[in-house]
Write a structure and sequence with these properties.
2 domains, 13 strands, alpha/beta, Aspartate Aminotransferase, domain 2, 7-stranded mixed sheet, binds pyridoxal-5'-phosphate, 3-stranded antiparallel sheet, Aspartate Aminotransferase, domain 1
């Protein structure tokens, strides 16, 4: 028998390593410096014993629906479950195909596969997002949904994607896990598809003390189904209308999410300001390419990604100088070991592969100081300046 793979501790060691760097991707200590206030709110939940789909979940759902300009928000266990349950609620099953991007986090694909469907990839554009022009060629009579991911917090070209979906009568499920408060022509990310899926993972823009997620929808039918599906299919205490799953948003996590939702404008505006500063000061640096910014898209910079020459050496140089530059992610989904059964090979998605080979994420969170931002810019300039003189 194979030895059991010990994966339980890789995240803690990641936190430890990155916390050692002065300019970090990780800012959870600052994010939750007012934890005493949250403890007080949690104390109220404990005193009332209001643990399972408690009133904090209702409150968060109402507020979340309002900020995404949707009719319903349904709290669930994670962003992955938000996607998985959306696909199940839309009737997606074994043998169906879902078209998505190869440039994403594993969860997008994991949710499709867990729902029983086959992920079918379409290449991305230079903005990291699925290229609407690549989608139609991938549609077959088995295609049941398109699953765009708003990478780094930049909404995909949703008008084009929704038009394609309507033409072929297939559904759209948005992976908006990076995109809280992002908009496309003024309309919130997550509000275009049959459902929009958000994550409250500790490393997302709106984060909690563990796992959590939320689904938004304008459909009465889907909202009803999803409320049943996340809670054993229970209509009331004694009657089950469909055997299902348990993926409720934890009431304690809803308290934390609600606490941060009250700060979401500060979080979002700070990230945008930091990104604008980088854009302005890195635009002319030879070796760095900044993705096209479109003025009708509000991008919220869950990540600030640049394309850069000699990426691995730049990353090492920045880390040596105390700047936590990260790669999200070096290996696209179609080239993951887990995807081998799908039969893709290097070269199948040339834009995606180029982006993966050159992408670098700079810290962009809301607690960076002007001094931090200046140092990041000057170290990148120093790196490319010294390259030139060699
Ligand atoms: C984080 C993330 C998810 C999943 O979120 P969890 O809450 O961690 O399950 C899905 N898609 C993308 C693009 C993500 O970054």
């Amino acid at each position: 028998m194979n030895a059991v793979i010990d994966v339980k501790n890789f995240l803690p060691s990641q936190y430890k390593q990155t916390n050692a760097l002065p300019i970090n991707h990780n800012y959870l200590n600052q994010q939750f410096a007012d934890y005493e206030t949250i403890f007080q709110k949690i104390k109220q939940v404990v005193l009332k014993g209001d643990f399972t789909l408690g009133s904090s979940v209702d409150e968060l759902e109402e507020n979340f629906a309002r900020i995404t300009q949707t009719k319903y928000a349904i709290g669930v266990g994670s962003g992955t479950d938000a996607i998985f349950l959306s696909l199940k609620a839309l009737g997606i099953k074994e043998g169906d195909e879902v078209i998505t991007t190869p440039f994403t986090f594993f969860a997008t694909i994991g949710a499709i596969v867990t729902a029983g469907a086959k992920p079918v990839f379409a290449d991305v554009g230079e903005d990291y997002n699925i290229d609407p022009n690549q989608i139609e060629a991938k549609i077959t009579n088995k295609t049941k949904a398109i699953l765009p991911v708003h990478w780094s917090g930049k909404p995909c070209h949703m008008e084009d994607i929704v038009a394609i979906a309507n033409r072929h009568q297939i559904n759209v499920v948005e992976d908006a896990c990076h995109a809280i408060k992002a908009t496309y022509r003024g309309k919130p990310a997550g509000s275009f598809g049959q459902t929009g899926c958000f994550s409250f993972h500790p490393l997302k823009n709106l984060n909690v003390w563990g796992d959590g997620g939320i689904i938004v929808t304008n459909s009465d039918d889907l909202a009803n189904k999803l409320k049943l599906m996340r809670n054993h299919g229970l209509k009331n205490r004694d009657e089950c209308v469909m055997f299902s799953y348990n993926s409720r948003l934890d009431t304690l996590q809803a308290v934390v999410a609600q606490h941060l939702l009250e700060k979401i404008n500060f979080i979002t505006d700070s990230r945008i300001n930091h990104a604008n500063f980088y854009d302005q000061h890195l635009a002319d640096v030879k070796g760095v390419t900044i993705a096209l910014r479109e003025n009708f898209i509000k991008q919220v910079y869950h990540l600030y990604c640049i394309q850069c020459d000699d990426r691995d050496n730049l990353q090492a140089f920045l880390i040596k100088n105390g700047i936590d530059a990260k790669v999200h992610y070096p290996i696209p989904m179609h080239l993951q070991p887990a995807a081998s059964y799908l039969g893709y090979k290097p070269g199948d998605f040339p834009v995606c592969e180029k982006m993966a080979n050159h992408t670098l994420s700079l810290p962009v969170h809301e607690f960076l100081s002007q001094k931090d931002l200046n140092l990041v810019v000057s170290k990148i300039k120093e790196f490319y300046g010294s390259q030139k003189s060699i």
